[in-house]
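Two proteins, back to back. First:
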Amino acid sequence: MSARLDRVSHRVPLLSAAPDSQIVPRSAFEAPAEEAARVPAPDAATALLRVQGLSLDYRSDRGVVRATHRVDFDVFPSERFVLLGASGCGKSSLLKAVGGFVPPSEGRILIDGQPVQGPGSDRVAVFQEFDQLPPWKTVLDNVAFPLIASRRATRPEALARARDWLARVGLADFANAYPHQLSGGMKQRVAIARALAMKPRVLLMDEPFAALDALTRRRMQDELLALWEQERFTLLFVTHAIDEALTIGHRILLLSPHPGRVRAELNAQGLTPAQRLAQAQRIERLLFEHDAVAGAQSAADHEVTAPLARHAPLDVVTRPRSDAGRTSVAIVSSESRA
């Protein structure tokens, strides 16, 4: 897994919160002045998806309920970006907003620099429900239908592409079956094939494996990563499972509940088993032991370093990297600089 993730690290500017055991002095990351001057900062202009100051509100019998408050994040081409948080943190609402189904109350969403005005074929979603496939259509027709309906392919072209994607997900022999004849995992494979056949700019996945048993869920995670190796699609993935977030994501955005605010943004790629365990423990602390901190934050205070302040005052510093002139970011303790 680590080797697979390492191969794309040069493509994604990272904001990484090092595990506690890896807190290092700022001086360890500082390059000579002349070298640092040659290293460009990560360029936000290269982001495929940009979410800026996004607040989402819903109307209910009790009035207006805020789902998310001024959320910011960028997703880069070919990146797997995970939204992680407990129920009620607004992660699914964020996904729907990116899909164009929920209008922002504040802020904006950009795809390739253009505002999202509504649903579009450049964003395709896969949900956790098994009934997302029309039951009267065969598996083949389910995969081909969006291509035909969006006029992105003629029927013969759509059927050919659908057969290709069914073969990639291991369902070529079930092309003429109907959804009720498939298991839950097989239905999700069809939904993934249908989405990727559209070649979307961003694939949106809202807890797609949550309803599966543990063994099938892990197999589907591995299959998703294998498909990503082939296609290098951009993925925005929602989950409430820490282990799944660390398995799927390059970066993880942690959201606090009621309303959802950015609590932290963490690196999840290229971790050793010890680092992965430490990162999982940190995520648990951020999600479950900082409710008081989250409650005390003002509406405008959602910086990624704030939830980590109980360890020590923190700074974000830029660390030069040798690959393709990129830089990465690490969070370091000011106490460790002394």
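And the second protein:
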Amino acid sequence: MQQGNEITYPIYSPASIIGLFNNALKLNATVNLIYLKGRYSYGGGKAYVNYYYDFLYSESDNTSIGVKMPGLLRSKITNNEIYTLRGFIEKRVKNSSIELIFVVDELISQEEKSVFEDDFKRYDLIQKKLEKGSQDIETFIRDKILRSEKARIANIYGHNAIVQKDFYEGLDISSKDFDIDDYTCNITSATSISDLLDTISAKGYDVIALVRGGGDKQSFEVFNNLLLAEKLISIPAITITALGHTADETLLDKLADKRFHLPHDYGSGLHAILNKLTEEKSNSRALLIEEVKKDVSKQFVEQVSTLTGQLKKKNDEFIEAQKTFKEHVEQQSKAFSEQLKVRNEEVEKLKKEITETYGKQVNTLTEQLTKKNEEFQKLQENAAKQIQEINTSFSAQQKQRQEEMEIHKKEIASLYEKNIQSAVNEKTAALQAGLEASKLENAHLDKRLREQKTDYTKVIIAAVIALIIGYIIARIL
């Protein structure tokens, strides 16, 4: 549209655009009754306003369209059978898409289900799984717990999934008994799931689980993928599915070692296994204790009976031995008494002989000892006298030596004074001679001084010398 020189454009809202296309899709199939043929598959298990919302799949592939089926007609439908239906197309605007729903008006016919190549492949996979055998998750966890080990579990969720909390709520406090890692991928893509299975399988997990919280029927078909199913049964780990659908069973559900309907059921199933094992251990422990009590009681009674018999026998033997021992002791006591009497007589006789034999020797030794004591006393008296005489003589000699030392001290003092006086006189004479010489020299110098009035230096020198000499003389005197 152009106004003057300005160009304008029509502006639409998202709702108006969807409405335009919705109104534009006016075909004969949308306004008239049409016939559709395909494989009928149940959707949700509940009816909404007396209508069930299921799917109709093409016979040659997995393309589907939603089906709005009246409750009365649906009661005549068998799941996964081929039907020809009459109805019309109903369009629904959903977000930015237009969804086509086939509203069934009449059930025309039912055909026998054809057997396709995919069905043979599914059968082969199921047969292969039967030959391989399923691993029992309960037995495996039991063995792990008994060995005090934790089972390593890998859970695969979809991107942005929120069902993890359902799983952990079901698992409750048993989460501490497992090592659990969570992985995410495009849960609607068989390729994405298969690649993640390869990655996880290489890490050596004990259990690998596919966990999903439900979803539309069409996206649910990924779990019937043959290549993904073949990958699942080739994994050495225990496989588990918890896909969120209670009514439908997918190919992966059939091939997994264990199937749970919901993520919460999966968690609570593991929790129940641990509870069962705990109860069994408690019961088995109680039974074991009871059996042990019975065995111990029986053994104890037998041992007590045996020991009682042995004790009685030992008591009889002891009484007999005690009697024999008493007789033997009496015999020995009698013999010992007789021997002791003989020995006492011999001892008395020996004491008498010893007294007679050694009495004389004791008297002789006593006399000798008395004589030696007298001689020793005399020797002590003589020694005391000699010591007194020696002390008197030493005192006299010491006094004489003291007097001699006093005389020598006086003589030494006199000689010392004489020697000092002699030395002083000698020095005095020498100094007197020096003084006389100094006087003569002074006189001579005085004469020369008078002769030479200007020679002051000599005068000063002479005066200094005179002073020195006078100082020396004064020190000597």
